[in-house]
Specification:
single chain, Rossmann fold, four-stranded antiparallel β-sheet, 35% helix
């Protein structure tokens, strides 16, 4: 397999020395679907932002497509264009991502930045809107949409650029159950199409159903497990230690019992 990203000892700190990622070693191969899981504050979102070139290493290094991914590298017009064309980022909060007057304009914005002609832009918008079943929303203002509709539009606005790598931060967050099922179906279609997908989530159900690999970050911002979902989910003590599951007690009359609960109602 070809490596899309290689992180070697990658470290990132915020502000007054606040550690967000601590010596991360990670290789993401082309076509893989990888879930980065961990409790809030473990560094999941920072890791995605590092893969998207929004934050950078202050220790160690990261490469993308065989090229060092640094702030200086992204100042080079040729690499910046190649990188931004290849990698798409769907933010956790769709309201952060959507800013145009209409849904059509949202979907057209990325292709226009790639200097594509009007006919090709319209073709891409129509293709993606049809695939995500949002054709009827194209004339709507994004602020008038429901949470699930906004999420679809945010995803569509990335797909019109036809990236080969998709980064998604908490993709099931705030989605109703029907929209969650839809999103998991979309992720399976992307897998079949050979797209590389990296999601950051603490929803173990979504991670297990959509990804072939699960990377666990601890509250110390380090990788503490990396394997198949079955391998990782079998490590009960580890999942308890990193606050991805918790013991939950039920009482039925005079009888009590405990079992493990995880975000997304997964039972470990």
């Amino acid at each position: 397999m070809t490596a899309e990203f290689v992180l070697t000892g990658a470290t990132h700190t915020y502000g007054a020395g606040v550690c967000a990622l601590d010596r991360i070693d990670l290789t993401i191969e082309a076509g893989q679907h990888v879930a980065i899981v961990g409790a809030n504050g473990s560094g999941k979102s920072t890791l995605l932002k590092m893969l998207d070139g929004l934050v950078f290493c202050d220790g160690g290094e990261i490469s993308a497509f065989g090229h060092a991914l640094t702030e200086d590298a992204l100042e080079e017009p040729a690499f910046r264009r190649e990188f931004r064309t290849r990698v798409g980022f769907v933010f956790q909060d769709a309201d952060v991502q959507l800013f145009c007057n209409t849904v059509f304009d949202e979907l057209a914005f990325g292709p226009l930045q790639l200097a594509l002609g009007p006919s090709e832009v319209r073709e891409r918008v129509a293709e993606v809107a049809g695939a995500l079943r949002i054709e009827k929303l194209l004339d709507r203002a994004p602020y008038t949409l429901s949470g699930g509709e906004k999420k679809r539009v945010a995803i569509a606005s990335v797909l019109t650029m036809r990236p080969r790598v998709l980064l998604m931060d908490e993709p099931t967050n705030a989605l109703d159950p029907r929209s969650q099922v839809w999103l998991l179906d979309v992720l399976r279609e992307w897998k079949a199409a050979g797209r590389t997908v990296v999601i950051a989530t603490h929803d173990l159900t979504a991670a297990a159903e959509s990804c072939e690999r699960m990377v666990v970050l601890s509250e110390e911002h380090r990788v503490v497990a990396d394997g198949t979902p079955d391998d990782v989910l079998s490590q009960r003590e580890l999942l308890l230690a990193v606050n991805l599951i918790h013991e939950h007690e039920h009482r039925h009359g005079g009888t009590g019992h405990t079992h493990d609960h995880a975000h997304g109602h997964t039972h470990a």
